[in-house]
Design brief:
By secondary structure, this protein is an alpha+beta fold. Helix content is 48%, strand content 13%. It is built from 10 helices and 4 strands. The chain is elongated, with a radius of gyration of 24 Å. The structure holds protoporphyrin IX containing FE (HEM). Protoporphyrin IX containing FE (HEM) binds next to helix 6, helix 8, helix 9 and helix 10.
Length: 253
């Protein structure tokens, strides 16, 4: 991915028409398969300055794909009047320095932190061990297993990276699933018992939290099933995934 920044200096008298033109041109970005996202911002300190930020799938996709593609003519027709007012137009590569700020709590914090996830997995694995369909898979599980899975979930949902530091991270989790040949009914039961446990221990029940939580569990269990099949060849090294709120951040009054 590559980020394009275009800085414009627009006379105040033209500002309204400039924004309207970009409003129309944006329809072309919205359907261009090379465009990831776009945003036009206006400087509050010196309102004649605008910055258009467009994230492209790659610089080539922008320069060849978009500019040579079916949407460019309509896009350019809307904004060509303003090309001479461009002060900078460059592609920037993202660096590792990026992330979310502290204005939105992590799912980990929202859930109640390490204690909440430990309570969840303790209740969950008691159900798992008593279950006739998936209990046998866990018959020889390490007594620390509920705690380790709580560490994993905490890290995934934005808590401390203890599973990575103390337990071997993704690689260790992955090898525990290899060759287990988990079936779809077993996966479903795992999910269903976890959701029962979430209700029982009182994990937050707001739609936003549960949607994000369930989204990860659905994703994770489907990967666990796929990776556990005899012919699977998943990547052996990867970071622990980080799951966020997605399209529905927490509702805060
Ligand atoms: C989101 C989904 C899942 C997550 C986050 C998850 C997480 C984990 C983790 C972190 C471990 C290793 C614990 C350690 O450090 O020792 C593990 C092991 C294991 N998982 Fe999963 N798992 C998931 C889905 C499943 C499913 C669907 C099944 C089977 C129905 C399953 C069966 C097992 C088994 C049998 C082990 C080995 C337990 C032992 O013998 O100690 N997992 N899982």
């Amino acid at each position: 991915m590559i980020v394009e920044y275009i800085r414009y200096r627009i006379d105040q008298v033209d500002a309204e028409e400039f924004e309207a033109a970009y409003g129309r041109a944006a329809a072309c970005l919205a359907v261009a398969p090379q465009c990831v996202e776009y945003e036009l911002t206006r400087c509050v300190d010196e309102p004649e300055w605008y910055i258009l930020r467009i994230v492209w799938t790659s610089a080539d996709d922008h320069l060849q794909g978009f500019r040579g593609g079916e949407h460019f003519a309509a896009f350019f027709a809307e904004i060509k009047l303003y090309v001479r007012q461009i002060e900078e137009m460059r592609h920037y590569k993202r660096t590792a320095v990026r992330g979310a700020g502290g204005s939105v709590p992590s799912l980990y914090e929202w859930a109640g932190g390490a204690e909440a996830f430990e309570g969840l997995t303790e209740t969950f694995y008691a159900k798992v061990l008593a279950d006739e369909l998936i209990g046998p898979l866990f018959a020889h599980m390490d007594p620390g297993h509920p705690k380790y899975v709580a560490m994993w979930l905490s890290e995934v949902f934005g808590g401390p990276d203890r599973y990575t530091r103390e337990r071997g991270g993704y690689h260790h989790m992955l090898i525990q699933h290899l060759g287990k040949a988990i079936t779809e009914p077993q996966r479903r039961r795992w999910v269903s018992l976890l959701m029962d446990a979430a209700d029982e221990v009182g994990l937050p029940s707001d739609p936003e939290f549960r949607a994000a939580f369930t989204g990860y569990i659905e994703w994770g269990t489907r990967l666990a099933l796929a990776n556990s099949q005899p012919n699977a060849s998943p990547p052996m090294q990867a970071p622990v995934p980080h799951w966020g709120w997605g399209v529905a951040p927490p509702y805060v009054r």
